[in-house]
Amino acid sequence: MSVATRRKLPIGIQTFAKIRREGHYYVDKTPLIARLAEQGGAYFLSRPRRFGKSLLLDTIACAFEARRELFDAHDGADGSAPREKLFLADHWDWTRPHPVIRLSFAEGRLAEGAKLEAHIHHQLDTNAARLGVTLPPAREDPHIRFTELIGRTAAAHGRQAVVLVDEYDKPILDNLETPEVARAMREGLRNLYSVIKGRDADLRFVLLTGVSKFSKVSIFSGLNNLRDITLSPEYGTICGYTDEDIDTVFAPELQAAAEEGQPLDREEIRRWYNGYRWGPVSVYNPFDVLLLLAERQFRAHWFETGTPTFLVHWLRGKGFFTPQLERLYASEQLLSAFDVERIEPEALLWQTGYLTIDGQQRKGAATVYTLRVPNLEVRSALNEALLLGGWLPGGTPLSQLTMRLYDLLTEGDAEGLRAHFERLYASIPHDWVRANPIARYEGYYASVFYSHLASLGLDIVPEEVSNPGQCDLVIRHAGRAWVIEFKVIDGDAPTGEAMRQLKARDYAAKYRGAPGITEVIELGVEFSRAKRQIVGWEVGRG
Fold first, then answer.
1. In DSSP terms, which residues pair with 519 in a beta bridge?
2. pTM of the model
3. By the 8 A CB rule, do 19 and 26 touch?
4. What's the start-to-end Cα distance of the chain, in Å?
5. What pLDDT, in 10s, does the model give residues 49-62?
């Protein structure tokens, strides 16, 4: 493919018409839009931030408004950018436009109930003006005006209306650190969304999108006709890019990078940014891919745009055992258990994109999901944030330590590694330990140990990471497999139990002679709660 076929990268663009008219790349999601519209009804979709939810809604709006020219091919003869035909161009009834009501909570932060109500009134008024209908005055309750907007719009246009809600939950998520405000936001939104079921006869299609999946009882009370497609296999790729998308749509960018002396290794792109899974096919974070293609640098692009300090503080307060990021188990009910009064770590980390579904299996009547960190970006950046913002006191010289840690693993220097971790733990002031509950919970030292390693973005293979008393991990790096067992003991003398368990379970067996592995290093580490330091360090090589 010629470099001349390159297009503009749609970084941060959420407007479908802008992408189509100005010559940006567009990954055609319209086959899935056609399927959604054909089935009809009211839908809910949860995806992490910056995954293309707003663009999806705008594309759906353009389709229902019958703006066919945006979906058809265009030769660019009028001076605009040429564009190819999309699937929907030949698979949609363009003779029947529907009025579209759009609500968005994506912009700004609302910190009190009165501001939420004012924001809703403003959006209702804006929609009414665009659709040519009048509404009762703003002194009426928002849900009454929303009801009237739907009914009057359908009557004025002689067609059922479409309702699209972007970031339906953001006013709640923005205020989770102040639960009383979050509850006020929840009540205001529940009041608004309750309208949808009652106006079913006037609605052709409804889609609400957001980051979190609040329980139906808490926010969608009475809205039992809402179909949650978050984990529907057929819609698993409705947001995000697939491997096929990278290799076809963005092939000109990969070719240009290679020809300009900045080749982007496909496997490295996959390791950094792929791995999110809501169905049988894994997807890439689109924001990461676009910035990588623009800057040609592997960085934590998505993570750097706004990982909430709330998440770090909340995990610290919960005493979350960070090795569990490599493998965690959750039921469907647990993943949906998200509300102001009840936030489970599994639900929060999954819904915000820091964990993804790795597999599922039936256990009787229940479905059990295996969760894991999706990719190298999240593993390294999240663990660094946890170390700096949660596990270690301010001022810990982490950057220099991290550089040295990488070299020690590359060199296979097990004794140097021991000295390195002893220095890290010794740098934690005793006063800080006494003042911080996080430093007194059983899994703290194992979490520091794991997160320091994981912040390097190394190839980490979980074995069994559910018990805070142990940290069984395998790190593959520079032709070596480090098989690590971590024990927290009450005394201050080594027991040898960590190495005994390693030998008994023989985790190392599968790595001896494995492709790319020239040496296996077994490492039994014992940490004394009393001394707050490593007291046992046994090394086996083979």
1. 480
2. 0.92
3. yes
4. 48
5. 999 999 999 999 99
